[in-house]
TrEMBL record:
Listed name of the protein: Nitronate monooxygenase family protein
Stretches assigned to coiled coil: none
Classification of source organism: Bacteria, Bacillati, Actinomycetota, Actinomycetes, Mycobacteriales
Molecular function, one GO term: monooxygenase activity
InterPro entries: Aldolase_TIM, NMO
Keywords: Flavoprotein, FMN, Monooxygenase, Oxidoreductase
Matching PANTHER family: 2-NITROPROPANE DIOXYGENASE (PTHR32332), MONOOXYGENASE RV1533-RELATED (PTHR32332:SF38)
Amino acid sequence: MRTPICNDLGIEYPIFAFTHCRDVVVAVSKAGGFGVLGAVGYTPDQLEIELNWIDEHIGDHPYGVDIVIPNKYEGMDSDMSADELTKTLQDMVPQEHVDFARKILSDHGVPIEDSGADAFQLLGWTEATATPQVEVALQHPKCTLIANALGTPPPDMIKHIHDEGRKVAALCGSPSQARKHADAGVDIIIAQGGEAGGHCGEVGSIVLWPQVVKEVAPVPVLAAGGIGSGQQIAAALALGAQGAWTGSQWVMVEESENTPVQHAAYAKASSRDTVRSRSFTGKPARMLRNDWTEAWEKEDNPKPLGMPLQYMVSGMAVAATHKYPNETVDVAFNPIGQVVGQFTKVEKTSAVIERWVQEYLEATGRLEEINEAATV
Ligand SMILES: Cc1cc2nc3c(=O)[nH]c(=O)nc-3n(C[C@H](O)[C@H](O)[C@H](O)COP(=O)(O)O)c2cc1C
């Protein structure tokens, strides 16, 4: 399964695991893959604590940090500090949306009065909030890759990361976005198909991956969206990718912070139970369909706001679901891809990597058998 990117990054397998849980980052990198910590929900101080913990537990293995600076978002042209921007954006949130969100929660018996501490917050998805996260990450030498979602990182940020001797990756959902990343000097392009969990475009992986590979060659491409087995990794490499960038699988591992209720919901879900919805973040993201996502779709109801305003509304639901995971399953934010239909149980992270390697060998072995049979 080794590809050139394994040598570039000093890893055994080209398996990249996006996760919000530091334990999963460590477990993946120690198992020979490359763990990437999603920083969007962390303040710079919290991120520093997480990365110190990773450094202490990961041995000599490398890891990455993922930030979110979208190409477009409310307030992107301002040069306000994160605090000033938060205040300005808070004032832009219509009361109608807040009342509607509160009604969805109270109709489901979710206590909101004492769980709204995180409401109206500005998550790390602006340049103002992501830049300090990058500064923290660069203080940690084992963090050798900074990835950006939803856009091309700003040129001065790319230069700064390169000057510090680290690599830059960026996610894309189209060849034209991939072109912009490559032209800006991004080292690794992540082509993410529409079946992926979290923010995603509309084009499916098997169509998108080879288009992006062709567009940016010789820049290495990682395939994302719909990978939850070694067979799917074999397909990604066959289509020209140098590795697999995965996310959904890691909510179903023992080391993840996901609750038993969430695990049960994922294990029960089929590939048709996810939806691309703007109802939590303001941009289309794939998640489990539930009463919250349906409510924002109904014709007469308020429509989701843009990023980052919608999270200032949905943040109260996310805070409530963290506090009351059992009561809030029908309104919770559960980002997950269509690959959820393959998940039946919670596994150990190292067992997932071992299984994927084995399945990859079986898949490639099968192709060899087919070739041999055809040439006899
Ligand atoms: C729970 C969850 C949260 C995610 N959050 C982010 C994020 O904050 N930043 C990001 O770059 N990608 C995020 N993603 C997308 C992943 O990085 C990855 O591209 C995607 O999960 C790959 O497709 P898959 O879900 O089919 O494995 C998230 C995915 C999931 C499942």
